[in-house]
């Protein structure tokens, strides 16, 4: 009786054990272990330095956010716990600025991804003799200092010094691009797209270079159209490069400051979170509330990073041990 009862359990355990074994990753080879160890040793000094210069400001900002603290009245500093965050989350200005920041991030990253991929295809398929010149020309906007770029776009669209209104027949000469939220945000996002699209294109170009040519040729021989080859072969093999491009740009776009500060200074509903933190801390000298905004901004950036990594589900270590 006991033997017959034990038999099914043994069979079930054996099947589940086999399934677990198939899910386990193959053991790393000696070469893979050595490469991983070398990578850790090479990255460790930079990681330690970055940790040393970033952990203290983050902890100090969180500590200051727990106090009601103004630089104009240092003797009146008092511990308020999470009260600054309560005030922040009930302030409609904060939610408006958060919405503007999210809008700029989503729109710019989406457009930059499409344009960057198009530029990457052009550079990837260009004649060898023209590749160097083409890449240099594309990188010119990205090499421009952000402040200089922002001033250039501001003077181009300004109602007094700009030439854009004269060039666009559908726009009146007296139209003020920085007189309301929608056109001002449009110029701000255009300036961001113009400057940082080359960065996206370089990252995607590196991803295109990693796509095996044999796979694309085999797909074309099997009768696949260009769209099918792009969707079924090229894009899946570029998943890691796309994730890195989206992650880097989203983190950078969410912290936008220079363009908004120079073009509108946050007027007409164009203020973003980083500008709100600057105005609160530097303008009104409210260190406690400004630190709370900075902490929330930091947590949002961390959330974007985690969401991008989880969303793309890219296993960067899948090739180890082969």
UniProtKB/TrEMBL annotation:
Gene3D superfamilies given in the database record: MetI-like
Disordered as annotated region, ranges: 1-31
Pfam families for the chain: BPD_transp_1
ABC transmembrane type-1 domain ranges (all copies): 98-308
Alphabetical list of PROSITE patterns matching this protein: ABC_TM1
InterPro entries per the UniProt record, alphabetical: MetI-like, MetI-like_sf
Family membership noted in the UniProt record: Belongs to the binding-protein-dependent transport system permease family.
Name of protein: ABC transporter permease
Organism: Brachybacterium paraconglomeratum
Classification of source organism: Bacteria, Bacillati, Actinomycetota, Actinomycetes, Micrococcales
